[in-house]
Every structure is written in C-alpha cells, then in structure tokens.
Amino acid sequence: MDKWRGKGALVTGANSGIGAAVTRKLLELGMVVAGLDRQVENLNTMKLTDKYGESLFVLNVDLSHEEEILRAFQWAEENIGGVDVLVNSAGIGGTSTLLDGNFNEWHNMLNINVIALSLCAKEAVKSMRKRNVQFGHIIHLSSNAAHIVPEYSPFHFYSATKHAVKALTEGLRQELRNINSPIRVTSISPGIVKTPIIQTCLGDDIDKIVYEKNPYLQTEDIASAVEYILSTPTHVQIQDLTIKPLGANN
Questions:
Q1: pLDDT tens digits, one per residue of 177-236
Q2: Which is catalytic among the residues 158, 211, 216, 228?
Q3: Residue 141, strand partner residues
Q4: Which of 2, 37, 111, 153 is deepest in the core (most CB within 10 A)?
Q5: Which residues lie below 8 Å from residue 247, measured CB to CB, with a gap of 6+?
Q6: Is 158 part of the annotated catalytic residue set?
Q7: What is the C-alpha separation between 15 and 136, in angstroms, rounded?
C-alpha cells in the first residue's frame, strides 16, 4: 500500500455514510484526500478532530452542476497534485414508484447517480493521463440493486441508475483497455449498509423497519473493501465486488 502514500484521492459524497468511512480509510493509508459534498459539516469536524485531518481538504460541491465538478478537479490539480484515486460514493434514492414517478426526483437521481459519476470519472482519467500515472484507480460505489430488481417499488428507478453504473464500469474498462491505459476501474455492489440514505429518502419509520428486519453491513466494511481493491497488484482488474451481509435474502 506504500505506493498510494502521498497520492491524491477525491471522494464524492464524503460527508456521511460510506463516503465518510472511505475518506477516513484513505487518510489512514497516507493519501491526501479532497472530500466533496453539498453538506460539509461532518467533513469539517473530521478535519478538525481526526489525527489525519491535515491531509483532508473539504470542498463544498453540488454534483448536479457541471461547473462545480470541473472546478473541484481543477482545484485538485493545483493543490494536491491531481487525482490518482477517485471514489464515486455520492448517490441518492427516491420515494416514488414508476407509476407515480416524480420528474424532478428521477432527474436528480440520474444527475447524481449516473451523470455526475460519469463526469467525475472522465475528469479523473484526464488528470491521470496528463501525468502519465502508472497505477490510477477509479472506484464506483454501486449497489446490489445493480444485479437485481428489488420488489420494493420506490427502489425501481434507483435500481435502474445502479444498473447503469454497472454498464458504465464495463464501458470505461473497455475504453481504457483500447488506449492501453494502466488505469483500473472497479464497482462495489453492497447489500444493505447502515447509512442515512433510507432515512433521508423514506423517513424514520421505513428506516427502522429495514434495519430491524434485515441483516446489514457497516460503512467500515465497504471502506475495508476499498482498501483491499487498492492493495491488489497492478495487473489485477477487479471488475465488480459484491458484498452482502451474512444471512441476506438476496
């Protein structure tokens, strides 16, 4: 893991949940991390209280705006030497079904879960190729919903965005292969993880039911998976890592 020490990482959705756990893990590995999020209170607290806080830079970025994403990558070029690892952790869900769907909700999910992810990947590759990096890595936080269609109707459109991430991961791998690039791309597909996303989208009652009736993973489990992915030899391409809590139904 020494090869990553001092290298620049950019994490989207870094303020909470999986993104926050991944940010802390990358700091522990000796990386310099730019944490992006629309809300940054927890990131600022981490910077002030974490022993690795001097290597964390907090960027207030709304991923639904192209210019803010581009500005963040430009900042990374000028201040942390560019991006060697990108972790696309940002993602949002919704409350509507396909029959009662809300246009704005669908649009926002596509913007964050698919378009922003793709733009960040594009800019990360540009940064890596500009500096001729030999072991850059892009990691997309996907979902088990990329491999199934959940029975719960409000998850249907969300699932579609994660199926898109699965296709985008493979598409990016093919394009990098075609230009003989050493940059690797991986998606992580977790089952249920204890994060604020269900509470934020569906409220306290549904959040309580989900975690009372189903086994779940902790955010640190996913951060450990990121560490494993980054630790593999440069000739190893982990396409998709599916992680389920023991005893999960699917």
A1: 999 999 999 999 999 998 876 777 666 666 677 777 789 899 999 999 999 999 999 999
A2: 158
A3: 188
A4: 37
A5: 215
A6: yes
A7: 23
| Location of structure tokens 């955010």 | 219
**d(Cα 10, Cα 88) in Å, to the nearest integer?**
8
How far is residue 161 CA from its own chain's centroid?
13
Cα separation of 26 and 87, whole Å? 10
Tokens matching residue 14: 């870094």
Q: How many residues are present in the chain?
A: 250
Q: Give the integer Cα–Cα distance in Å for 200 and 206.
A: 10
Please check whether residue 50 is in contact with residue 121, taking contact to mean a CB–CB distance below 8 angstroms. no
Q: Token pair for residue 96?
A: 């509507």
Token pair, residue 227, equals 């560490």
CA 78 to chain centre: 23
Token readout for 162 is 């994660």
Q: Over the stretch 81-106, which tens digit does the pLDDT of each residue have?
A: 999 999 999 999 999 999 999 999 99
